[in-house]
Specification:
Radius of gyration: 16 Å
Strand content: under 5%
Distance between the termini: 31 Å
Number of domains: 1
Order of helices and strands: HH
Number of helices: 2
Amino acid sequence: MILKAMRSNEEVLNKQYKERIQKAFPADILEIIRLNYSDEQRHLAWVEQALQTRLWEQQPSPQP
């Protein structure tokens, strides 16, 4: 399933970003790493929620 593959990728990326924010990068580079890490954390949370709620089985909401 695609979402499981996405979760695996997001887990790897999150691990990499978590390790990188511990490094002694210049402040401007570290800020970019932190922002990207935050994005990846949100991506992983969304994928995990989609898998948990079985998003693919839900009916789409009616459009206004």
